[in-house]
Amino acid sequence: MSFPHSPTRHWRTALASALLAGVTLIGACGGGGDVVGGVGTGGTGAFSSGAIRGLGSIVVNGVRYDDSAATITDDNGNSSNSSSLKLGVVVEVQGDDIVTPATGLPTSNARSVVFRSEIKGPVTAVNTAAGTLTVLGQSVVISASTVFDLNLPNGLASVAVGQLLEVYGFVDANGVYQATRIEGENSTSAYKIRGKLSALNTTAKTFQIGAAVIDYSAINFSFTLVNGQTIRVEVAPTPNGLGQWVATRLNSATALGNAASSAATVELEGVVTSVTGARGFVVDGITVDASGVSSFPAGIAVGSRVEVKGKLSNGVLQAIRVKLENSNDRSFEIKGNIALLDTTAKTFEIRGVLIQYGNATFKDGLESNLSVDVRVEIKGSLNATGTVLTATEVEFKGLSDNGSNSSYEVKGAISLLDTTAKTFVVRGVAVNYSSAGFEDGTAADLANGAVVEVKGTVSAGVLLATQVEFENALSSGDDSYEIKGHITALDTTTQTFVVDGVLIAYGSASFKDGSAANLSVGAKVEVKGSAPVAGVVTATRIAFDD
């Protein structure tokens, strides 16, 4: 058989402590590069705070962070997974030393990722012509680079007064939020704002963030409130009789801590809130000294969005590089496995991003090579509504991502089984199993649609399997198939979803600990059903697994 090409806790305060598609390919990348061992002297690793500009390993401030082994939490410390890391989401990443390869973006292995939003609450005003809206008393500005979730299919035009939104972004000196991502919310037990405190009244126990008046009389906290400080507050979704929002949780969001202080490299994205000198300014409460920058960009002023690289010293970010950013830059990139391919509309999804490839150029493959679970890298730009990534280039990726003789693992459903050549394909990866050992089955159990986990080494673009483990055996019961994992793609129209590369039809299934309405990308489920027919498992029972 000849193989086809394998197209295959705590917001910026978390500078104190913190510092994608359920892709199950795990590779030990070959090659080499320069290691950034420090900026100035002392410190190890990297700390980066900014919006996600790429997926497939997350790209933050121009560095590609492999998040496959990272601890991922929200800004309350609640555990999450890579499905929460989406384009435009603001994160704080703590990682290893940055490696600069001969080609491509600098890379690092993320140890922890904390994601945070700025506002969650109801819309009180929308101005589509001006590109603005008001959420929970806060002014929000939309730019060409603002990403809208697919549950807002027409972007800002899908937003209505009274709707619940979650807004990611950066706040400027005037308390106006520059949105990097906006998602619709069906319901929430608490609203929240992260912003600058004003109009503090310690007698009435109230303060304001923007136009929102907050009553903090019912909670205890361990720090002193001061006008001008940045805080994060959660409030009950129903205001009190005076129209004030009642605080249920309050945290300071200004102090810097050990994660950033001990890092060799600190990278920070945000909006300049004040200028302190010819080469000095403040970004989200962090003072930046750019006197050592060899090429300082002209035009930095209050309101500019910047990206700063340096090292933290005594609470001041000593910059070695300052980049003036364009808030209207629509360019993004994504790497991952194709889901929900529509060859008529010329669209597919990767990690919840809808991609339109009709005018794209193709590299290392052809448009006809596109299929579900093929691994690709996309470069493109947001469309006018901010909901679809229009691809300019589609590059097929497979084991070519990895150096020869490197270790590799892949889990998914078998296709293109050739028992004579002893080969098959899993998630776009060509596998030769002639020298493999088997667990929970034998070579005779191999079949198209069977789910296996394969471990081996890479040689000439083929995974030479040393072990093949069957993942779908049941000890008893009428159901003949079982699979457990995170949903990586969901189509409620056809009532199908994908787990570990397996397409599952759930229209006739019963549910435990939830219902079909609870299905979502990123949800962890355990599925029992019939053995695959034409690559599709018909689920009889689906249990939600927290």
Verbal overview:
With 546 residues, this protein is mainly β. It has one helix and 45 strands. The strands form five sheets. It has an 18-stranded mixed sheet that branches. A five-stranded mixed beta barrel has the order 34-35-36-39-38. A hairpin with a 2-residue loop joins strand 38 (451-459) and strand 39 (462-470). The two termini are 43 Å apart.
Give me the Rg, rounded.
25 Å
Give the total of beta strands.
45
Overall mean pLDDT: 84
Classify the beta-strand content into a percent band.
over 45%
The biggest sheet, with number of strands, parallel, antiparallel or mixed sense and barrel status, is: 18 strands, mixed
Runs in which pLDDT lies below 50 for 5 or more consecutive residues are: 1-41, 473-478
Number of domains: 7
How many helical stretches? 1
> Helical content, roughly?
under 10%
- Which structural category fits the helices and strands? mainly beta
The CA-CA distance between the termini, in Å, is 43 Å
Q: Give the overall shape.
A: globular
What's the quick description here?
With 546 residues, the chain is mainly beta.
Topology:
Layout: E1 26-27, E2 33-36, E3 46-55, E4 58-60, E5 63-66, E6 71-74, E7 90-95, E8 98-101, E9 107-116, E10 119-127, E11 132-135, E12 138-141, E13 147-148, E14 164-171, E15 177-185, E16 191-196, E17 198-201, E18 206-209, E19 212-215, E20 230-235, E21 245-252, H1 258-261, E22 265-277, E23 280-283, E24 286-289, E25 305-313, E26 316-324, E27 331-337, E28 339-342, E29 347-350, E30 353-356, E31 361-363, E32 375-382, E33 388-396, E34 407-418, E35 423-426, E36 429-432, E37 437-439, E38 451-459, E39 462-470, E40 481-491, E41 496-499, E42 502-505, E43 510-512, E44 524-529, E45 536-544
Parallel strand pairs: 3-22, 3-27, 5-9, 6-9, 12-15, 13-15, 19-21, 24-26, 30-33, 31-33, 36-39, 37-39, 42-45, 43-45
Antiparallel strand pairs: 1-34, 2-8, 3-4, 3-7, 4-5, 7-9, 10-11, 10-14, 10-16, 11-12, 14-15, 16-20, 17-18, 18-19, 20-21, 22-23, 22-25, 23-24, 25-26, 27-32, 28-29, 29-30, 32-33, 34-35, 34-38, 35-36, 38-39, 40-41, 40-44, 41-42, 44-45
